[in-house]
Design brief:
Largest sheet: 8 strands, antiparallel
Oligomer: single chain
Low-confidence stretches: 217-225, 380-403
Distance between the termini: 31 Å
Strand content: 5-15%
Number of helices: 10
Radius of gyration: 34 Å
Shape: elongated
Strand order of the largest sheet: 4-5-6-7-12-11-9-8
Mean pLDDT: 79
Number of strands: 14
């Protein structure tokens, strides 16, 4: 669309240039041929105008994505990308369609002006040679060369010639009502076969329940992913962010469940979204994506070390205060040795998983050795639920794509 918008302001100048060029051609041929009809003059002028615009679009107008010279010799790969990853990741499909449309006028006007080219081989050859020459010339200004452009332009010329033949067949049928319509079969087939790939892409678009991301066409320095990216086709989990609750409602819920009195303040906007510091020194932190951590002010411990089973039950008591129960998470391990302090760190992992729900991440509960709750760290227990359910009512939902 942006290229069409670039062309529109140039149309008046192109029309004037075409008029000047055609005027010179008309005068040079004056007296060498019979006076042309008005329709022929119009066709010749439009053909001249098409060549003027074609040269502007292919050789002068700024084009591309700033990635430098690009030579593509892999035909029609964008249709595979569109089918595999969705048309949103294959803008080349619609560029291919524009290239077809661009050559439709040539397929109509050229045989209309030069009658000896009213045959399939000649009409195809004209479109192919003009497109091929243009693509080779585009290497000079470093605009890139693409075999798909040659294919699309040639198909566009065929579609234009098909439309011309259909109009001529209709005109012949009106003059000769008994004329056979068999000659219209080939033009109709060309038009239908040309439309078929685009219709297929459109029908398959969105047929995948979740969708996929194709990063093969992205500029690497603008790509931010948390996994290795290679130049080979790879399928990764991609999550679409959808907020389940506003920050203010989350703050109220966390404060109520934690039982901490205090006033919320805005975070730094990068590492934290909001912070509440209680009157007794307890704190609640809300991080990006509404993950959160609660730290309690704990008095001195008694020095007694409880058994692991008892500590796990104490941790469950703390989780229940936040509406997190055994249906949502399961105890994973005692991870106290990984922290290097005197506290007990128990890890709980989300266990809810169905065909439409994939849960990743863990929750950490910190206790003193005698079982006093020190904190709960919702360390990114990402809930992806296409059903709209979530393990925790205050959480955001990430949509997991099909792999």
């Amino acid at each position: 669309m942006r290229y069409i918008l670039k062309v529109l302001p140039v149309l008046p100048a192109a029309a004037a240039a075409a008029a000047g060029i055609y005027g010179l051609i008309y005068r040079s041929r004056k007296g060498k041929r019979a006076k042309p009809s008005g329709g022929r003059v119009a066709a010749e002028y439009l053909l001249t105008g098409w060549f003027v615009m074609f040269i502007f679009v292919t050789q002068i107008m700024p084009f591309g994505n700033g990635m430098g010279t690009r030579i593509n010799l892999q035909p029609l790969h964008m249709f595979y990308i569109a089918y595999r990853y969705g048309s949103a990741n294959a803008s080349g499909v619609w560029q291919f369609l524009l290239n077809i449309i661009m050559f439709v006028p040539l397929g109509i006007l050229f045989p209309l002006v030069f009658r000896r080219y009213r045959s399939w081989p000649k009409a195809i050859l004209v479109s192919f040679l003009i497109s091929l020459a243009t693509e080779l010339l585009q290497v000079i200004p470093q605009r890139g060369t693409d075999i798909d452009d040659v294919i699309a332009n040639t198909v566009g010329g065929m579609c234009g010639f098909s439309l011309l033949l259909l109009v001529l067949r209709i005109s012949d049928h009106k003059r000769k009502p008994g004329a056979s319509g068999r000659k219209a079969i080939a033009p109709v087939m060309v038009l239908c076969l040309t439309a078929l790939p685009f219709v297929s892409v459109k029908l398959s678009d969105g047929s995948s329940k979740y969708g996929n991301l194709y990063y093969g066409h992205l500029i690497p320095e603008e790509l931010d992913v948390q996994c290795d990216v290679s130049d080979r086709e790879t399928v990764r989990d991609v999550y679409r962010y959808k907020e389940r609750i506003q920050l203010s409602a989350l703050e109220q819920e966390l404060q109520k469940n934690a039982g901490i009195q205090g006033t919320w303040t805005a975070g730094d906007g990068k590492d934290t979204e909001a912070v509440l510091t209680g009157d007794d020194g307890a704190c609640i932190y809300v991080y990006p994506y509404h993950t959160w951590m609660v730290n309690y002010a704990v008095p001195e411990t008694s020095g007694v070390t409880l058994e692991e089973d008892t500590l796990v039950q104490k941790a469950w008591d703390g989780l229940h205060r936040f509406g997190i129960d055994e249906r949502a998470v399961s105890f994973l391990k005692d991870d106290r040795d990984a922290y290097g302090d005197s506290d007990v760190h128990l890890m709980f992992q989300s266990k809810e998983s169905t065909d439409d729900l994939a849960v990743h991440g863990s929750i950490e509960v910190s206790l003193t050795k005698d079982g006093k709750l020190k904190g709960i760290n919702d360390g990114g227990c990402i809930v992806s639920a296409v059903t709209g359910r979530s393990v925790f009512q205050h959480r955001k939902v990430w949509i997991l794509p099909e792999t």
